[in-house]
Specification:
The complex is a heterodimer.
Chain A lengths: L7 H17 L3 E2 L6 E2 L1 H12 L1 H16 L12 H5 L3 H19 L6 H26 L4 H8 L4 H18 L6
Antiparallel strand pairs in A: 1-2
Helix pairs in contact in A: 1-2, 1-3, 2-3, 2-5, 2-8, 3-5, 5-6, 6-7, 6-8
Chain B lengths: L21 H17 L4 H17 L3 H6 L2 H17 L4 E5 L2 E4 H27 L2 H12 L9 H31 L9 H32 L18 H23 L1
Antiparallel strand pairs in B: 1-2
Helix pairs in contact in B: 1-2, 1-5, 1-6, 1-9, 2-5, 2-9, 4-5, 6-7, 7-8
Classes of the chains: A mainly alpha, B mainly alpha.
Chain lengths: 178, 266
C-alpha cells in the first residue's frame, strides 16, 4: 500500500466526501419504518469514485470528526459514546466497507453498472456484518434478532441507494480526476 | 442546527485544562483510560475516580454537561448493570421469589458501571476543553513520528481540517437547494419509494456538483500557492509545551502508577 504520497486533489476530494457524508446524515426522506438518509449514499459514492484507500480515508475522517465532538453522526449525535454504543459498528463498517467497495471497483479498468452494484453490495455486507456484530454484543441480542433489528429495516432503502449511487458513479466519474 | 458545528461539544471557558497543549490533553486522555482499565475493583478504582473528579473540577465546565452527553450510552450501562447484578453466581445477598442478588454480582455490576461511566467522562473531558482545530493540530503532531512507518499524519490532519471547513458550507448549500427546489414545486413528502428517490436526486446532483466545484477551486488555490505537503511548512499557531503541561503529564503518570499499585495490593 503506497500511503505516504497522497495527491493534493485526492486529499481535497476525501475531505469533500467526509463533509458530504456528515451533511448527508441530515438530509432524510421520511418513510413509514426507518427514514432514509443520504449519508450512506455518499459513503457509496466515496468508495466508487475515490477508490479504496481515499474512500476509506474520507470515512475515517468523518468518524474521527464525530468522535471529536462534532454533531455529524445520524440524528446529530457526537462523541466516543456513539462509537462504543450499540450502533457504533456501522461507523467502523463505513470505513471497512468503503475500502472493499473501492478496491473491488479499482480492479476493473472501466467498471460497468453491474460490477459497481456488486462491489457496493459487497461493501454493504461488510457494513451490516460489523454493525450487526456490535449491536448483538453491546445490546446482548441474538444474531437473528440483531439482523432483524439492525439490517432488515434498512435493506429496501440501501438497495435503492446502491442503484442510485451506481448510476451517479457512471455519470460523475469523468468529473473526478485524482 | 449547524451554527455550532465547527465548535461541536467544545465549551469555551477559561480554565487550567483549557490552556493546556492539545498534545498534553490527548496523552492525558490515553493515560487516564489505561489507568481506569488497570485500576482493578478495589481502592484503585476509588483513587482513579478521585483523580478524574479533580480534573472535571479543574475544567470549570458545568458538571451536569458531562452527564447530558451520556444518553446514548444509558441503555447500555443500565443493561450491563442489571445483567451483572442478576446473572453472576455467588454468595446470596438478597433473595426474593426467583430473583437472587449475590455479593459478587453486586460488586461486579457496580465496578463495570463505574468503569464505563469513567471512560465516557474522560472522553468528554477532552472534547469539552479542546476545540476541534487544536485537537487536529495535536493529533498531527503526536502522529508525526509515525510518518516513517507510512502513517500519513499531515495528510490526515489536512483532510480533517478541510472537512471541518466544508461541513457548514455544504450544509448551507443543501438547505438553499432544498428551498429552491421546493419553490419550484418539488415534493419530498409523498409518492412511493421510486418517486421520492427521483425527487431527492434533484437535491443530490446540484449539491454534489457544487461541492465538487468548491473542492476543485480549493485544490487549484492550494496548487497555485505551491502547497507541497507537510515537510517544511510553517504554521500560524505553533504548539508549545509549557511548565503546566509537563506538570500535568508527570502528575498523571504518577497517579496512574499509584492507581495500578493500589489496584494490585489493596
Amino acid at each position: 500500500m503506497k500511503s505516504a504520497k497522497i495527491s493534493l486533489r485526492g486529499m481535497v476530494y476525501a475531505s469533500m466526501f467526509a463533509a458530504l457524508t456528515a451533511v448527508g446524515a441530515y438530509i432524510t426522506i421520511p418513510l413509514q419504518l426507518v427514514p432514509i438518509t443520504l449519508q450512506t449514499l455518499f459513503t457509496n459514492l466515496a468508495g466508487a469514485l475515490l477508490g479504496g484507500y481515499l474512500g476509506a480515508l474520507s470515512q475515517l475522517v468523518y468518524v474521527l470528526l464525530g468522535i471529536m465532538g462534532l454533531p455529524v453522526f445520524a440524528g446529530g449525535k457526537a462523541g466516543l459514546g456513539v462509537l462504543l454504543g450499540p450502533t457504533g459498528g456501522y461507523l467502523v463498517g463505513f470505513i471497512a466497507g468503503t475500502y472493499f467497495m473501492g478496491k473491488m471497483i479499482e480492479r476493473r479498468e472501466q467498471a460497468g453498472f453491474g460490477w459497481i452494484v456488486l462491489a457496493l453490495g459487497v461493501g454493504h455486507v461488510v457494513i451490516y456484518g460489523l454493525g450487526a456484530l456490535q449491536l448483538s454484543v453491546v445490546a446482548h441480542l441474538s444474531a437473528a434478532k440483531a439482523l432483524a433489528v439492525g439490517v432488515l429495516p434498512f435493506l429496501p432503502g440501501d438497495i435503492l441507494k446502491i442503484l442510485v449511487a451506481a448510476f451517479l458513479t457512471l455519470k460523475l466519474r469523468e468529473l473526478i480526476k485524482l | 442546527m449547524f451554527t455550532g458545528v465547527t465548535i461541536g461539544q467544545y465549551v469555551p471557558v477559561e480554565s487550567v485544562i483549557h490552556n493546556l497543549d492539545p498534545r498534553t490533553k490527548l496523552l492525558l486522555t490515553l493515560i487516564a483510560m489505561v489507568a481506569v482499565l488497570a485500576a482493578g475493583s478495589g481502592w484503585g478504582l476509588v483513587l482513579v475516580t478521585g483523580c478524574i473528579a479533580i480534573l472535571v473540577f479543574l475544567t470549570r465546565v458545568p458538571w451536569l454537561l458531562y452527564f447530558r452527553g451520556m444518553k446514548p450510552l444509558f441503555i447500555l450501562v443500565a443493561l450491563n448493570f442489571l445483567i451483572q447484578l442478576f446473572m453472576v453466581p455467588g454468595e446470596p445477598l438478597l433473595q426474593w421469589r426467583l430473583v437472587t442478588i449475590t455479593r459478587q454480582g453486586l460488586t461486579l455490576a457496580l465496578v463495570m458501571t463505574a468503569r464505563l461511566v469513567l471512560l465516557f467522562i474522560i472522553a468528554q473531558l477532552l472534547t469539552f476543553t479542546t476545540s476541534p482545530v487544536s485537537l487536529i493540530d495535536g493529533i498531527e503532531r503526536l502522529l508525526s513520528p509515525l510518518r516513517r512507518l507510512g502513517v500519513p499524519a499531515h495528510e490526515l490532519a489536512m483532510v480533517m481540517s478541510i472537512a471541518l471547513r466544508f461541513i457548514p458550507v455544504f450544509y448551507e448549500e443543501s438547505e438553499k437547494i432544498v428551498k429552491a427546489q421546493v419553490s419550484r414545486g418539488a415534493d419530498f413528502e409523498s409518492g412511493n419509494l421510486i418517486t421520492r428517490a427521483r425527487n431527492l436526486s434533484s437535491v443530490l446532483v446540484p449539491l454534489f456538483i457544487k461541492a465538487l466545484r468548491r473542492a476543485d477551486d480549493l485544490a487549484l488555490a492550494m496548487e497555485v500557492r505551491c502547497y507541497a505537503g507537510g515537510g517544511g511548512r510553517t504554521r500560524l499557531r505553533e504548539l508549545r509545551m509549557r511548565e503546566a503541561d509537563y506538570l500535568f503529564l508527570a502528575g498523571a503518570l504518577l497517579a496512574a502508577v499509584g492507581v495500578r499499585l493500589a489496584g494490585m495490593h489493596l
